[in-house]
Amino acid sequence: MTPTEQLDGNLNTPLPKVIRFINPLGIEYEDRNFEVKGWQMLSRVHEELRAPRLVRVGLIQHSIVAPTTDPIQNQRDAIHNKIKSYIVQAAQYNVNILCLQEAWPMPFAFCTREKYPWCEFAEDAETGPTTVFLSELAKKYNMVIVSPILERDSIDGDTIWNTSVVINTDGTVLGKHRKNHIPRIGDFNESTYYMEGNTGHPVFDTPFARIAINICYGRHHPLNWLMFGLNGAEIVFNPSATIQGLSEHLWPIEARCAAIANSYYTCAINRVGTEHFANEFTSGDGKPAHNDFGFFYGSSYITAPDGSRTPSLNRHKDGLLVGELDLNMCRHVKDIWGYRMTQRLDMYAKELAEYVSKRDGKQD
């Protein structure tokens, strides 16, 4: 049975009356290598003056396709071709905003410390082949697409960044966000390739929702999540590449806690599989030299502002998670819990400024 048939063949059929806070959309498809799951996340509060503000988001997790020893063009083209088929399926389910995983058109080679051939994957955020490829699909399907890539900034001396490009429904680039926090742990040698971003905490006003992107390691920093909320985000995507044995015990917690603390939706996306490299590399964890980063465990999920969350996608398979979200819940949770009103930001700003001043003074 095809994914379309799971929706009774009519993608415009109104959804059934909601009888639970989180209610299955009726989207479910799975084969040996790929699964699709769909969930509604609707508010318990019924407003008299505002209709529900529904938006469908899609999260795609996936493995690479070609071996890392293949030519760079072949590797990227193979991933592009696979992801195109997944985006077509997302369009069948009327997804409005789609987010891909961190550095999605390439292997996560930032463990190797080798500059080449991996720097060849870096491309211009506005005119590079991946943005051109996705722009056509965004325009065709009236979809906002968040595309995390390795960016080459030729205007700034060929500086390389870890960047998420936001492509609007007309195929134009709405903006971009560069990764704020760079890990220095174990095999994560990312500072060999790029440093902390310089775009701050932008929120993008799309036709469907106000969105932001907290890239991978930034999820470990509560203030990073906070700033996206203060700047007005209703949905914050967390495209990631994280491995078993390092972060999996934290994975179900951090994006969920951020949704609660900041009264917005969070969408956590992780890649899948084990990627092998030709040359051995060592890292800061004291382990013998090895040829792979470890197992990327997928498990993508969505959390609502009240802390309820969808089940995760598979740990081993490519997948598409579709969530229908009622954005009105962001206000409902703020009204009920009052986190925003009781934040005491002035107090924390004063004490943080004092701490930074004192710390810098000690370093002089």
Radius of gyration: 20 Å
Q: What is the percentage of strand-forming residues?
A: 25-35%
Query: Could you say which structural class the secondary elements and strand pairing correspond to?
Result: alpha/beta
Q: Helix segment count?
A: 7
Please give a quick description of this structure.
Residues 55-327 form the CN hydrolase domain. With 364 residues, the chain is an alpha/beta fold.
Describe what this molecule looks like in 3D.
With 364 residues, this protein is of the alpha/beta class. The chain has a single domain (23-358), classed as Carbon-nitrogen hydrolase (Nitrilase/N-carbamoyl-D-aminoacid amidohydrolase, 4-Layer Sandwich). It is built from 7 helices and 15 strands. The strands form 3 sheets. The protein has an 8-stranded mixed sheet. It has a 5-stranded mixed sheet with strand order 8-9-10-11-14, covered by helices on one side. It has a two-stranded antiparallel ribbon with strand order 12-13. Helix 2 (72-92) links the parallel strand 3 and strand 4. The chain is globular and about 60 Å long. Mean pLDDT is 91; it is low at 1-22.
